[in-house]
Amino acid sequence: MADEIKKDSRLSFIKASNDSAFHISIPGFEPYREGGKHEAALVKNVVHGHLKKTLKWHKIPLNATMLPLITRISTRVLLGEDLCRNEEWIRIASSYSVTSTTVAGRLRRWPQHLRYIVSLLSPQCWELRKQVSDSHALIDPILERRRSEEKGTVYNDSLEWFEKTAKAAYDPADTQLFLTAVSIHTTVDLLSQALEDICAHPEIIGPLQDEIRTVIKEEGWNTKALYKMKLLDSALKETQRLKPVQIASMMREALVDVTLQDGTFIPKGHQLAVSCHNMRDEKIYPNANEWDGYRFYRERQEADAAREDKIQLSSTSVEHMGFGYGEHACPGRFFAAKEVKIVMMYLLLNYEWRIPEGTKPNPVSCCTIWVTDPTFEIEVRKKGSEDPALELAY
């Protein structure tokens, strides 16, 4: 069914997402309309800023620690140094996704014709609108300054990318806020869940560290090196298989009455989604409910070149819809996969991690959403010295 739905133009992802999941006509939700070496040094600086350098074991709130870390790294890559260092932007970018998702859920409890009125009376909606307004106060002056500069000045960031490629009017600040809303928290969740799984299976930490050291020594710090870290890629993909952010994917709304090939009838205006149960199907994945960090590593070792491309973390298929599937699969999955790998490499080589005795991390579920338990704490300590392998990266 997924293959049929992904290419049926009568079933709209945009309609389902914009009108129902996020209320784009309501102030505060405007962003949902818009719908190498420096990385290593950046990760080092950011991680040191958010993790203590103590050599003693201590607890940290996992999700709350990884959120500003990923937000700052993503901002540096997408928006440049100025906003990366701007604490106000980091605050907005870190909180907008949670605020908008929470408010959207609360508004869905009301009949559609009352939602706009409710939004005008809701303190949470006031906060959402303030976040959008504050983002404009930060982004708009940067764009105005750039547009007034003489031609020839080159900027390599997402502000410039949108300026060059936009073929119609768009809102730069809303666009950037949308990027943060759909990317940062999902990346944080994958990083946090994967670190939990790796710590729950400490026997894989040594092989992961060995792979990282070997590949960096052979390739240095580049995209090819990240591609060759196949065990790390496998461990991350296995975590996403068992704990996807969404257990139902490919949400669509029927623009007209639709009858699928198997006879399923979808009335106009009704919504549907495809279950991700295939990711726990014993016929596809033996011992499907068990985390096996080597699962996709073994597959890649046995696969030909064409098949290997479909087994990587950033790949999508009917069997693994962690990043969605079809035309609206996550377009930022390649960036997210690289970002999580880079951060995980640094965390594994320079820190020791463990699950506190007597605790077991479990994701928190709400409807079709699974996310890291925001209250879970993990134990960490800094190693005595920086791993020599990473010196090659700076």
Automatic annotation (TrEMBL):
Needed cofactors: heme
Binding positions for heme per the UniProt entry: C330
GO terms assigned for molecular function: heme binding; iron ion binding; monooxygenase activity; oxidoreductase activity, acting on paired donors, with incorporation or reduction of molecular oxygen
InterPro entries reported in the protein's UniProt record: Cyt_P450, Cyt_P450_CS, Cyt_P450_E_grp-IV, Cyt_P450_sf
Keywords: Heme, Iron, Metal-binding, Monooxygenase, Oxidoreductase
Pfam families: p450
Matching PANTHER family: CYTOCHROME P450, CYTOCHROME P450 MONOOXYGENASE AUSG-RELATED
Family: Belongs to the cytochrome P450 family.
Protein name in UniProt: Cytochrome P450 monooxygenase
Organism in which the protein naturally occurs: Fusarium irregulare
Gene designation per UniProt: TRI1
